[in-house]
């Protein structure tokens, strides 16, 4: 049985070796990569989130955990990728302006690639002009916006409005996500879809593209 507490301990370590060791050990024991990600890494990170909220942990602790989490995710990434398959559609992903959280967005990126989408990841702290320029250049079918702060959630509304108002001939569907985002908020700001996690992100993007076909 994978224990989030074990991953929590390894995420808190000053070295990356413990988390790498734990992920590799879980794989060697035959645990599916999705379980190691969801029960282990995300489970461990959610304990960190609770302690951060309760002020038992501080930003440097969380930064360290984020670095360790990325290393753990990197080991799993190839197991989710499906290179050489016909693209299901193109998606542009980015964390909105003012927000530097990217762990969740990166997981969405991995799951999308693994499910056959071509992913263009713009990164973090992306101003709306950059989203618009990327849409014009890459002509994606879907735009995925991530926000982890209640303040930056509102930036998603601005991006959606700008996409809708833009003179682009083929406008992408816009899907949104991130810990503070809800289905109701997504509807309120005019998004085409909302995903509570990376698996839901793939489901909603696939459904939107099927409805267009
Ligand atoms: C790690 C972390 C950090 C790290 C980020 C490192 C990194 N590279 O990402 C660091 C230390 C840098 C950081 C900084 C800050 N943080 Co911070 N951080 C967190 C923490 C603990 C975990 C976030 C995380 O990675 N979760 C794990 C991932 C897997 O979950 P997720 O992001 O939600 O993503 C999943 C879904 O939401 C969804 N999803 C995500 N994106 C998308 C996109 C689409 C399109 C779809 C469909 C789905 C989807 O799928 C993902 C996979 O399942 C959260 C606590 C929490 N409970 O969220 C606080 C938290 C988000 N941070 C918070 C705060 C306050 C800050 C700071 C302001 C702190 C400070 N005083 O400086 C700064 C902000 C800096 C900035 N301008 O952005 C607050 C926000 C509070 C609020 N109401 O806005 C939180 C909630 C902590 C708290 N409870 O107080 N943080």
Can you give keywords for this protein?
Methyltransferase, Methionine Synthase (B12-binding Domains), Chain A, domain 1; five-stranded parallel beta sheet; globular; single chain; alpha/beta; binds cobalamin
Overall description:
The protein is an alpha/beta fold and 213 residues long. The chain has 2 domains: 77 residues, Methyltransferase, Methionine Synthase (B12-binding Domains), Chain A, domain 1 (Orthogonal Bundle), CATH 1.10.1240; 124 residues, 3-Layer(aba) Sandwich (Rossmann fold). The chain contains 9 helices and 5 strands; from the N terminus they run ααααβαβαβαβαβα. Cobalamin binds next to helix 3, helix 4, helix 5, strand 3 and strand 4.
Question: Can you give me a brief rundown of this structure?
Answer:
With 213 residues, the chain is α/β, with parallel strands linked by helices. It contains 9 helices and 5 strands, in the order ααααβαβαβαβαβα. Helix 4 (59-80) runs parallel beside helix 5.
